[in-house]
Amino acid sequence: MRAALVSDDNIIANIIRIDSLSDIAGARFMSDKSKLKIGDSYDETLAHCEESPPLSNQQLPTITLSNVSVGSTNARLIGKIWWVPQYEQFTITAQAEGLPNGGLMVMVERVINASTPVDDVRFQALIKDGQVTMTGKFELSGNYIITANRLNAGLERIGAPFRLSFETMEFDAYVPAT
């Protein structure tokens, strides 16, 4: 998109191309149709040409996931970590008021030291009437996390009109004792 860099006295000092208005502090939206040029006084009506500037992340609604639970025959919550047997199906459910019906790709990161991603697994969550449901199983034993930061990076990449907020979920997928 085009953006104008405007001086303190409201004069267009430069016109540049950027991916997001948040890329450069103070950048102001300019439609590709705008006839304004360097040296002109910045006028929002003439700059926008009846187009709306894209929403920045700060303007997007944040939807909080609440009442998050994990269901599985043998899953146990130990402290803040869900212990789930390798290969055992589990279901995560959460309330998400305001989230549109549909689907959501959930990136579950396999990590070392509970924080450094080394791989990820993708699960599809279904959203219906404010409830998110995700079913899956871990094929590899190890430590996994689901974070709002990672999901929001994906939501930004696809241009989703919302962001998510929730406490990080951590899993230890283990080989059951026989």
What is the CATH class name of the largest domain?
Answer: Mainly Beta
Q: What would you call the structural class?
A: mainly beta
Could you please say which CATH topology of the largest domain applies here?
Answer: Immunoglobulin-like
Rounded to an integer in angstroms, the radius of gyration calculated over CA atoms is 22 Å
Distance between the termini: 59 Å
Determine the mean pLDDT: 88
Shape: elongated
The neighbouring-strand order within the major sheet is 5-8-11-10-9-12-14-7-6
Q: What percent of residues are in strands?
A: over 45%
Q: Give the H and E element order.
A: EEEHEEEEEEEEEHEE
CATH architecture assignment name of the largest domain: Sandwich
Q: How many discrete domains?
A: 2
Q: Helical stretch count?
A: 2
User: How many beta-strand elements?
Assistant: 14
Low-confidence stretches: none
Could you explain the architecture of this structure?
The protein has 178 residues and is mainly beta. It has 2 domains: 53 residues, no CATH class; 113 residues, Immunoglobulin-like (Sandwich), CATH 2.60.40. Helix content is 9%, strand content 46%. The strands form 3 sheets. The chain has a 9-stranded mixed sheet with strand order 5-8-11-10-9-12-14-7-6, covered by helices on one side. A 3-stranded antiparallel sheet has the order 2-1-3. It has a two-stranded parallel ribbon with strand order 4-13. Strand 6 and strand 7 form a beta hairpin. The longest helix has 11 residues.
